[in-house]
Sequence to fold (168 residues):
Amino acid sequence: MSKDKELGIDMKSIMEQMAKDRKKRATSAELNKAALATAVKLLRITRIEAEFSGSGDSGQIDEVRYFAGKQRINNVDMIKKLIVADASINDSTTYCETKKEWVTTTKSPNIEELVEQICYDLLGANHGGWEINEGSYGEFVFKFGKGNKIDLTFNQRVESVETTEETY
Fold:
């Protein structure tokens, strides 16, 4: 009998759940990307850059920058206030004692919250564990116009060990 079965762990079910979660995140990112493209058109935003970093079991979006053409937009108050009604992100998750299950509520985000959620969804769908141990860092570049797309530069930190054995 395998150790997993002895411990009551169903690895097949865990792997299936992980695959479902990755698919859900990828789908969410794609839908929210379309809503974001529509919203930024109103503000004439042509590019968004979002830096992220993670390690030690936590990660975050460090900075989000907005551009109209090659010009950086420094006054982001309006961007942070504009709600994207066509998008939805998780607002909170709490345990419901009555139902004996976790309940997640959603909300319509502002542009910056939506950018961050898309980044987290893409990282979760394609680079699970990006925040674990040495972690990773990088940058998403959202490009709007013909063929809206998101480019990712992903840098994974890797610890290496070199071992030698010698007898004298």
